[in-house]
Amino acid sequence: MELLPVIGLVLGVLAVTALAARISFPAPVLLVVAGVAVSFVPGVPDYQVSPELVLSVLLPPLLFGAAFESSAVAIRRLLRPIAQLSVVLVLLTALAVAGVTVLLVPEMPFGAALALGAAVAPPDAVAAVAVARRVGLPRGLVTVLEGESLFNDATSLTLLRVAIGAVGMSGIAWWPAFGRFSWAAVGGLLIGLVLGWVFSQLRRRMTMPLTTTAMGLLAPFAAYEAGELAHASGVLAVVVCGLLLGHRSPQEVAAAVRLTESATWASVRFVLEGAVFALIGLQLVGIVRSLDTEQHHVWWVVALVPVTVILSRPVLISLIHLVSRVVPGRTARAGPRSIAALSWAGMRGVVSLAAVQALPVDLPFRSLIQVATVATIVGTLVLQGLTLPAVVRRLGIAEDRTSEDLAERAEARAAASAEITRQVDELQQQGRFSEPQAELMRKWAALRDWRNWDDPEQSKAFGRELSAVSDWRRALLGIERTVIVGLRNDGRLSEDVLTEMQHELDLEEALLERRSQAVDGHLEELPDAEDSPGSGGPQDPDEGHRSDQPGPAAEDDPAPVGPRPTPSWAGDAPAASALTTEAEHAAENLRRDTG
User: Fold this and answer.
1) 431: left (phi over 0), alpha (psi -120 to 50) or beta
2) Three-state DSSP class for 453?
3) Is the CB of residue 228 less than 8 Å from the CB of residue 236?
4) pLDDT of 491-519, one tens digit each?
5) How many CB atoms lie within 10 A of CB 433?
6) What's the whole-model pTM score?
7) How many CB atoms neighbour CB 207 within 10 A?
């Protein structure tokens, strides 16, 4: 394999993505357009990607990374709408596209038409969720889109195999097809759970961050191959394995592992996602040129298949929602505006591209199926990807989740502070340490919980002083970094020692930067004195908030933790900084003493 085309592809992805961020333009759309433009440049190699490369190399890490970062708890709570969209909607969309295609091209076998429908049916996990988060869709809708785009690939690829097997036969054997679907789902689920448990146990026993991260990189490929060897859904095995490992990661691996893993997966997904969309554009011209344009039905199919995909989604989603309200069972609340947003977030991408490239060479109308699929990918990315922000704003459901996230963070801090205080009191009663030590730890917990003090003015004043402390601490770190680099340059400090010290400074500065962002965000959300309750000013932005998103009933949510009393010693930020350092040592002693 030549490396020059790969290097050129990665460099192009980096440049186009940076440009998209600078001009606030959707990166997937710009990558496709740039790929088409570059394909006309003389000397640019012909990028022909094998189906095996897309299905077994590009797709597993993309799906695994998306699943690893997804919330298994949120997906479980919204499992019914996710299952409806990822299974029922995919099947109905594929049948609708197949029906339109057969009407336009009567001589096309139904199996080939169904293969086209299976290829264009699943929305893309990368494109849909990225745009949905950027435009501020409610979190419940983002979870539904994320779950749909993760699980619908298994339905699509299984249906594609059934359709290809039916080509040349008098019809589709529906009962064997149903059995194949069932085993693909059950087998993929079981394999994903088993491998997720195995990798989880291995990760718990590993102590080196790099070894654990490398094991995580191996997981998606192992899950996919195991699923395919068992003739189940390798895609579903990858998704389930990723969800399980991501859910258990906070409890099973050390902080150093999570930091390394997070940076590694972010880089891998960034390059692979960009490469996939760039490859769509680079291959578009070659695919179109392979098409026999002399036949009158060609352009009708290329034009009407994307139209069918776009228009059938709102109709089918509305129909599924109406039926689900009749069928007994718990139904997620989804209003007309939420359904409209879900209907328009149907961009196609990597799975559709992989599906048409996996078609047998001798499949009837193969070129037509490929061109219609690529037209659907480009059409949905351009039309829906560019207009989704405007549609969401027009529907009035976009939400700024900053205040909600800050409230959740404050609630979690309060719960943790209360538990720390309880355990400290309990251990003090057992005589494990003295009253001064216990008081020091309580103060440390209260300092971390300053966002929940019941006096907004005290909280705001302390937050401002804490922000100032963080600023001069970063300045001091900069001085230290300059000194040690100068010592290295003068030959008075070895490279190994510099690397170790630099790593410690980087961690400390990153933590300070993160805390400063959190402090600044919280200060913006705190009410001024004239806005406090009872003064006639605006209420808390979270008070009485009701989201239009689908989700579980409110009574399932835990009761919020109330404000914490403002300590009498609040306001002395330099002293608080020193106190924090002392408390950290005391907490470490407590952890060592209690095992």
Assistant:
1) left
2) strand
3) no
4) 888 888 888 888 888 888 777 776 666 55
5) 18
6) 0.73
7) 9
